[in-house]
Amino acid sequence: MRFILISFLLITLSGCFKGEKVDLIIHNAQIHTMDNKLSVHEAMAVHNGEIIEIGPERSILNRFRADETINAEKKDVYPGFHDGHGHIMSLASQRLVADLTGSESFYEMLSRLEKFVQKNKPEFLVGRGWDQSLWGEDDLPTNKLLNERFPNIPVALTRVDGHAMLVNEAAFKLVGLDTISSIEGGKIIFENDTPTGLILDNAIDLVTAKIPRASDEALISEILTIQDELLAYGITHVHEAGIHYNDLQLLDKLASENKLKIHIYAMLFTSEANKNFVKEEGIYKNNKLSVRSFKILMDGALGSRGACLLHPYSDMPNENGFLLTSVEEMKVHTDFAKEHGYQVNTHCIGDSSNRIMLNHIADLMNDTPDHRWRIEHAQVLHPDDFDLFTASGAIPSVQPTHATSDQRWAEKRLGKERLENSYAYKTILNKRGVLVLGTDFPVEDFDPFATIHAAVQRKNTDNEPSTGFLTDEKLSMDDAMKGLTIWAAQGCFEEHQLGSLEKGKKATFTILDQPFGNTRNFKQNYAFKTFVSGACVFDMDL
């Protein structure tokens, strides 16, 4: 009898240690897999950076044992969020110059600039982030006060959207803008035959070429800080929407040194240096850096009247905006991209630029159904052109917080009739069946919860407008979450590894700090913990 009892105990105890060994178990959770069925599970097991199994609590805990087990205490778990259109390099550079974001008047902007000069004593005063709509002004500013305050130092101040710049006379003469009468894809604004100091789009490149580049050390420090901030929101993947070759080299260096914790999907500007890189490297992967797309700028921004419209602006009847890239040049770039198997992601805001590019994709890529070429922004569309998303197979990539920011002045630019076909995210989704969501930071904040609120409630974080903006175009909560996860992964060819929490995929996910759901009023949230390929890269407790 004693022998039988001992044998029973030994068998029972040995059974307790037969569970398959894994690295990590998450349990007592609400795991939103974002799979085809939008399944929600209680637990998952992770080993070697991958999800080994996901399912009911009892099943996972009985089958597996782990070095680390996390009781999520019913917290929501989602795949790591993508920002489908952001600018890490622009934000890093912006943080090294005068910050004009949120200035409520021209005089507040001047005050910030003066303080920056006193502290940093720059040889070229650079700032970014002004927005005249926050000053109660519709007209874009002139450089009169800049010339008075800064007569001896060149000044270049970029608007929040990056498509307009205000320069003083010293910068104007330094760059030689006073000798230029016209710029293809750009504009110098005159008033009574006198330049106002305001320049648009491609004209900006002439100024930035004269501005000293920040040191690699300073940029790297800012990039790593931004990375930590993104991870604190649960953002594990950024689609970097346009980089120059020297920026590519810097990111590649960080990737080689394993300093990139987040995935970066880089879109290359169409420079000769970038094209030579593609010729040599083809589709490129270095740890968490992926390169297989080009960024083309077809037009400018609506706020600075650089978006290319089929009909004139309502508040400037003689102005339609303009193309930044000619149709002929665009075709050269797209032919090159197709030849080398690269995706093309095109900045199109006005209904004219959207029509041109969607028709071109439909013609050029009709022999490649799953090309995944993208339209970035797609803000204004002619009602006849929504079907072009279906015909072309182009993936729309939009930024819901642009709608809630632009609503202050969008009707002035477009008029009521055209506004009804703008920021039409639901209509576009219904036509195409997939929608990538992003923020366009630093134009907007990269807070994904603000993006979700803007997409679902059509309000900003102050819950304005109170009734929502063009609410017929709001997305469902499920569609908003798909836009930040599985659809965004599809938009960068990563859906087989990322974007959903399924067996065999990378264990890249975020555990949210606060209960999460669809609420009329904005509720701030953050990541409690964020994991990339099974490794914890952010922990609120630390």
Describe this structure in words.
This protein is an alpha/beta fold and 542 residues long. Helix content is 34%, strand content 24%. It is built from 19 helices and 25 strands. Strands 8, 15, 16, 17, 18, 19, 20, 21 and 22 form a nine-stranded mixed beta sheet that branches. A six-stranded mixed beta sheet has the order 3-2-7-23-24-25, with helices on one face. Strands 9-10-11-12-14-13 form a six-stranded mixed beta sheet, sandwiched between helices. β11 (155-159) and β12 (164-167) form a beta hairpin. α3 (88-94) packs across α8, α14 (400-406) packs across α17 (448-457) and α17 packs antiparallel against α18. The longest helix has 17 residues, at 216-232. The radius of gyration is 25 Å and the shape is globular.
